[in-house]
Amino acid sequence: MSTARTSAWRRFRRDREGLSGLIVLTLFALMAIFADLLADPVGLDVTKAAGKALDAPSWAFPLGTDHAGRSVLTMVIHGSQITLLVGLAATVISMVLGTLIGITSGHFSGMVGGTLNRLTEWFLVIPYLPLAIVLATVFPPAVPKLIAVIIVIGVTSWSGTARLVRAQTMAIEARPYLERARALGGGHWHQMTRHVLPNVMPLVLANTTLTVSIAIIAETTLSFLGLGDPLRVSWGRILEQAHDLGAIDLNAWWWVLAPGIAVVLVVRAFNMCGRALERILDPRLEM
Question: Residue 72 in contact with residue 65, Cβ under 8 Å?
């Protein structure tokens, strides 16, 4: 196993697209981790803003200021924490649900497998964004908004993973060593955890990087629509404020451009890493 991981990492380092994406993600991760050192969080307080309203980019404020005189750079740096946290946490929920439902629906036939497959198809055909908006609006007020957004994104984005895992599970179930395991008395739990799960994990890993980008776009969209946490700064929240206060009409292009580019770079980086992992785990995709 260690040799296989070493070989996969060596091939990943030789993949220019994947390595470039990893470098970009590392930079954003470091920015989120050390946000308090890179930019004083006091600058997020409207009452303590140090700049002029809608001041264009300058040496003092490299990305300009917002309507309250806050540094857009400071908001983008601290906004990376919430955006990445929501994206990663929602992806964990999505991957766990998708893997469990996919393996179970692929392993069991009859009512159990059929019901889970119909449930997966139901989530696939329903428009994702309207469903997420409905769930976000009906969440109990007692649940913190940030937790609600994470759960909403996680429970609405697992169906694609479940479909992929189910197809892979059904292919694995037809292999001879699964027949031998059943003949030797291996139960359902033994078959799914000892034989199926290890074989679908490479597919899950590659799909995870792609799902993170979807979750980040979902968080940005929900925040832009006013369904995010109003007490926390995120890239979507910055875009929402810029839109509501007419940043484009006021020619404050920097207020929109900075968080927008940040979202594009992170999503693109995750997609680049995901494509590289797909090529490594499936040699047939190599050109």
Answer: yes
Q: How far apart are CA 260 and CA 278, in angstroms?
A: 27
d(CA 72, CA 86): 21
Looking at residue 100, its amino acid is L
- The answer to whether position 164 is within a domain reads yes
Q: For 44-86, how does the pLDDT look when each residue is reduced to its tens digit (9 = 90+)?
A: 888 888 888 888 999 989 999 998 889 999 999 999 999 999 9
Establish if 150 belongs to a structural domain: yes
**Predicted TM-score (pTM) of this structure:** 0.86
Place of tokens 């999503």: 267
pLDDT in tens, 260-278: 999 999 999 999 988 888 8
200 assigned to some structural domain: yes
Q: How many CB atoms lie within 10 A of CB 126?
A: 12
- Which CATH number characterizes residue 118's domain? 1.10.3720.10
